[in-house]
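Researcher: Hi, I'm a grad student and pretty new to this. My advisor asked me to get structures for two proteins we've been looking at. I'm not sure of the right format, so I'll just paste the first sequence and hope you can take it from there.
Model: That works fine. Here's the first sequence with its structure tokens right after it:
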Amino acid sequence: MVSDIEFLEGACERMQQVGLVQSKAEFSTRMLGKGPSYLTSMSARDRKVPDEVIAFLIDQVTPDIEADDVTILILSEQCEQRRR
């Protein structure tokens, strides 16, 4: 089972890979709503991440996911129209 910290570190790493954030500091502030050293500090102390922090992350990514779903639907419809 993945710990909360491992989950956040994995999410941060993936977001860095795709260019959504540039650093752990940016991830901590923008995606978690915390100070720049939050993720590093929590990892070093092996602390449990509060539910509110996970909820904040979900709130940050959900609108983007919903917008992408709409875009995919529109593009799929356009492809289908062109096939006809």
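Researcher: Oh nice, that was easy. Here's the second one.
Model: And its structure:
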Amino acid sequence: MNCTVFALLILFSSLSVAYALNFDNMNIYTDMYNEKIRNAPEVLRSMVGDENVEFTIKLNNGSNMQWWMELENAKIVRSNYGGL
């Protein structure tokens, strides 16, 4: 699981928009990720595989935001706010 989260963080940061994510419309970033993962090395795609991932992000105002993703073959098939 740690490898999966690490791989996802690397892929999201490779989108070159990770520093300016707009959490109001994460579907745009999901589409960008799915396009990029197609060209990722097979080793990386096999590490990500089929997973359920949940993020808890601490915001500047002291609150937390939860985001979850369901992955199939390293592609995001479902994601949304809240827990799994």
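Researcher: Is there anything I should tell my advisor about the second?
Model: You could mention this: The helical segments are 2-14, 26-38, 42-48.
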